[in-house]
């Protein structure tokens, strides 16, 4: 599977190009969720939650009927976009989501307090928002986290972080363009457009 910069640009462009025109801040996450679902070909549910300290800031769980991405509530909107993009990369790349190595992951998850805390978080989020909650939801979350905690998966985390920043930057550019009227035929307008979308690195 292609995971280089070109693949990241292509996926980000496809996702951002699918986001419908935005009206207000409240629509941003909903629009991103709809875009993710359209490109993924099945429902992608985005849920915000307070993560336990010193665990993680985002998590993707591959469910039977949908994908669940949970992202940190207690951070700024820019960082939330990075988190959503990070988890979306894991989702589209199938990192830790195909069942391979789950026997080892299950053993690790049973001993890993962080994986357990995240599993409980996902169970709470699912119970509060989903009508088709599976009894396997906590273990699903623990397995995904444990599978990604392996040292050999560090490259996947680096890839996901790179994509998260790219995706967040592209989304912010679209948001700025929908809120700042710029005449593309005017030189000053083109310069303004090219400089009006800085992304503050976290």
Task: Outline the fold blueprint.
Elements: H1 5-18, H2 26-40, E1 44-49, E2 58-62, E3 67-72, H3 77-93, H4 102-111, H5 113-129, H6 137-148, H7 154-179, H8 187-195
Parallel strand pairs: 1-3
Antiparallel strand pairs: 2-3
Helix pairs in contact: 1-2, 1-7, 3-7, 4-6, 5-6
Describe it.
It is a single chain. The protein is mainly alpha-helical and 202 residues long. It has one domain. The chain is 59% helix and 8% strand. It has a three-stranded mixed beta sheet with strand order 1-3-2, sandwiched between helices. A hairpin with a 4-residue loop joins β2 and β3 (67-72).
Helix content: 55-70%
How would you state the average pLDDT, rounded?
A: 73
- Unreliable residue stretches: 98-111, 186-202
| Number of self-contained structural domains | 1
**String of helices and strands:** HHEEEHHHHHH
User: First CA to last CA: what distance?
Assistant: 29 Å
Radius of gyration: 18 Å
| Strand proportion | 5-15%
Looking at the structure, what is the overall shape? Answer: globular
How many strands, which pairing sense, and closed or not: the largest β-sheet?
Answer: 3 strands, mixed
Number of helices: 8
């Amino acid at each position: 599977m292609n995971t280089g910069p070109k693949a990241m640009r292509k996926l980000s462009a496809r996702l951002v190009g699918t986001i419908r025109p935005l009206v207000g801040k409240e629509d941003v996450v909903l629009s991103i969720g709809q875009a993710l679902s359209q490109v993924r070909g099945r429902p992608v549910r985005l849920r915000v939650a307070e993560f336990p300290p010193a665990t993680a800031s985002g998590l993707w769980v591959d469910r039977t009927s949908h994908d669940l991405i949970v992202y940190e509530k207690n951070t700024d909107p820019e960082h939330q976009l990075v988190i959503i993009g990070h988890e979306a990369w894991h989702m589209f790349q199938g990192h830790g989501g195909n069942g391979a190595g789950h026997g080892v992951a299950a053993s690790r998850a049973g001993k890993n307090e962080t994986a357990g805390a995240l599993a409980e978080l996902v169970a709470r989020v699912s119970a509060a928002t989903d009508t088709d909650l599976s009894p396997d939801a906590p273990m699903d979350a623990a397995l995904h986290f444990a599978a990604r905690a392996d040292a050999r998966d560090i490259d996947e985390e680096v890839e996901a972080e790179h994509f998260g920043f790219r995706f967040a930057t592209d989304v912010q550019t679209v948001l700025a363009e929908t809120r700042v009227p710029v005449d593309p035929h005017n030189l000053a307008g083109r310069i303004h457009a090219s400089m009006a979308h800085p992304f503050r690195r976290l």
